[in-house]
Amino acid sequence: MGFLSRLFGAPAQETTSATFAPGLGYEASRASRRLAGWTAERATINALQARGGEVLRARARQLVRDNPYASAATEAFVAAAVGDGITPSPVLADKDLKTALKDAWLRWTDECDADGLTDLYGLQALVARSLFVSGEVFIRFRTRRPEDGLSVPLQLQVIESEQLPLSYGVIQSQVGNEVRHGIEFDRIGRRVAYHFLKRRPGEAEIGGGIGAIERTVVPASEVLHIYRPLEAGQIRGQSQLTPAMVRLYLLDSYDDAELDRKRTAAMFAGFITKAAIGEAPPVAIREDVLDLLDTGPLTAPDIETALADLEPGTLQVLNPGEDFKNSSPADVGGSYEAFMYRNLLAIAAACGVPYIALTEDPSKGNFSSQRGIELQHKRRVSQFQHQCLVFQMCRPIWARWIETAALAGSIPGLGPTRFTRERAALSTVKWQPPKWDWVDPLKDRKADELDIAMGVTSRDDVIEARGEDPEEVDARRKEGQDRADELGIRPPPGAPAEPPEPSPPGDDE
Predict the structure, then answer these.
(1) Rounded to the nearest 10 degrees, what angle do helices 95-109 and 120-133 cross at?
(2) What is the pLDDT of residues 112-149, one digit of tens each?
(3) I want to staple 151 with a disulfide (CB 3.0 to 4.6 A). Which of 107, 161, 407, 436 is the partner?
(4) Could you tell me the pTM of the whole model?
């Protein structure tokens, strides 16, 4: 039995009577009357993915396509996690080489997409979206030829999770490895290859569907598997919509049925009651079919036609012996708003986005509560940025890019020899996420100014928290000041002066 079989094998047998004995153990583990119907799933997340992961992913994608709240949650998450992009700032003492690296990186970001649809920061947004919806995404490095005309002969190909089926597995490969959920592991549990389908399922009708069953094995060194690990030993990612999917579907079905009921009821202005007994049921008829009455009694197709395309304000012409009654459709009731709010609040919590971002409804909170929610949301997004996007995507891409650029001679002053000698320094990069805007930025700027004056933080830290590079900010300030001095431009009256330099520690004078 291989490493993964030992790791993910069937759990040991347990004594059911000891586990669920009434009156023993934790209250939450007892088989009491209230908890008798609570049967907890004991399978690992990998086993759950194997059973229903494909269906879960398909339903998540459909929700984002059709459900307005799922779509809004996705867009809000991507905007918060990526924004304009998570940008690198090399940590180098050589300022000339640092500038050359930034210029070369900026050129390459516009040509890095193998599909040619967006730049690197657009790919970051695409990755964040895939992580939220399907739980994972893959990026394959594509090395290009010099004649392809790229500034650095490297591009990135985004591969959606459907091209690595969860159902594909091999207990023992020819070299003694195991393939689980489409990923090949060696005997000590390291990833060595990915068994991708050549074409994404769902597009099999193109070209006869041969590509949907053909596989290509890609070495793990050429693939980035980006997902948020939720359990130790987890192999594949899980959609962030998972805890909210059932509620999203049922709530949308209820709201849609309520809307359609109100729409249908509003089509009728009134109904006709026949005085005679035994007549056909009363029917509301449009004016454009009233001429049918002159040619004889209404037939079943006539009735169906009259009801199939109702219009607002539909009236019926009265015949002798008929009575008219106004239509009074039932209202949704006063509990509708509270019911929707509580369910949408639960959906927002499950998706990890604020309620206002999910619904665009600012009426449910005040400034203080909104600020507290934003702070909590910022912590969650910052955790995702650094633990997933930066660690799994940005750092490996930079390492591969600078290695390729050095070997290809794409950056002046950086060749294979220097890269080999200074590899660690060249690979050290600070990744700056997009800045966070606040409802009251003046208070935040005052707080930053006070922190700098007290010495509890540095000006560079404040600039980096805004998603900027301190050296670039200083260079732009100096350039602007030099241009203003050259043109004789003076600061406007009342302009704030430069913040005072903080006193050295221990200096009381």
Answers:
(1) 60
(2) 999 999 999 999 999 999 999 999 999 999 999 988 99
(3) 107
(4) 0.76
